[in-house]
Write a structure and sequence with these properties.
The protein is mostly beta strands and 249 residues long. It has helices spanning 13-17, 20-23, 184-187; strands at residues 4-6, 33-42, 45-54, 59-67, 73-81, 94-102, 107-114, 127-134, 151-160, 166-180, 206-215, 239-248. Helix content is 5%, strand content 45%. Strands 1, 2, 3, 4, 5, 6, 7, 8, 9, 10, 11 and 12 form a 12-stranded antiparallel β-sheet that branches. A hairpin with a 5-residue loop joins strand 4 and strand 5.
């Protein structure tokens, strides 16, 4: 596994009620075709730019990685969509990246909303502060596995081992993040909701760090066809997300 773009989440009960598992399915694992790759040296830093075609979504994804001599990595994820197909294409569940790390990285320290999980339309009872938690605390055992553990309006996020060694993520604008011992696939029932239970899940032997510019709201007007209200959706449009990863020792 490696760092990768992420547009999907484990389907919530409201997502299945709105049939997002079908309507938004092209965002689950979009087929990407490599268009170009370029590597250049900028004042001693290495910059790699990769462009993919997302033909099913009439879009182009540009990834830029800038690595300096100190090991600091700046990542810019840019989505460029087709203007003429905007009305036909599905909204996005989320727009961000996922980074797998060894399971030993199990301690979280962040400045943002907490201490409970919170989302664009579920955060009035979560307050901005500095929080220290463990990765094992992030998963909430809903009766059926689904998206869980996200924290929003984050300024910086550290993921470390017990000795405090690890990484710090930050951005110029508030972002969302989560760290779980489960993948999207573990939390998702794909095309048809399965009546399995959270207690049946087996933790992975790694930690999945998700970093998002945006994640769609949870909805809750009802669980029978209603989408989140418009301001908490992510329209099919152009997006750019830049964040920095640096070592913590």
């Amino acid at each position: 596994e490696s760092i990768k773009p992420n547009f999907w989440r484990g389907g919530t009960d409201n997502d299945y009620g709105a049939r997002f598992q079908i309507k938004l399915a092209n965002w689950r694992n979009p087929i990407s075709k490599l268009k170009s790759m370029q590597a250049i040296n900028i004042n001693g830093s290495a910059e790699v730019t990769v462009i993919y075609e997302l033909n099913q979504l009439s879009a182009q994804l540009k990834m830029t990685y800038l690595l300096n001599g100190n090991g600091t990595l700046k990542i810019t994820e840019t989505l460029v969509v087709s203007e003429k197909n905007k009305k036909e294409m599905p909204i996005l569940p989320r727009f961000g990246m996922q980074i797998p790390l060894k399971k030993v990285f199990n301690q979280i320290h962040y400045y943002g909303r907490g201490p409970i999980e919170n989302y664009a339309d579920r955060k009035t009872s979560a307050f901005i502060n500095s929080y220290k938690q463990s990765v094992s605390e992030q998963f909430y055992p809903y009766i059926r596995p689904q998206e869980t553990g996200t924290k929003s309006d984050i300024r910086w996020w550290k993921l470390t081992n017990a000795r405090g060694t690890g990484i710090k993520v930050y951005s110029d604008a508030p972002f969302s993040a989560s760290a779980l011992n489960y993948t999207n696939e573990d939390l998702d029932d794909f095309d048809s909701k399965d009546q399995r239970h959270s207690s049946e899940l087996v933790e992975k032997d790694f930690t999945v760090l998700s970093i998002d510019l945006k994640q769609m709201g949870l909805g809750g007007i009802n669980s029978w066809k209603a989408q989140p209200i418009e301001k908490y959706r992510i329209p099919y449009d152009h997006y750019e997300f830049t964040f920095v990863i640096e070592r913590v020792e």
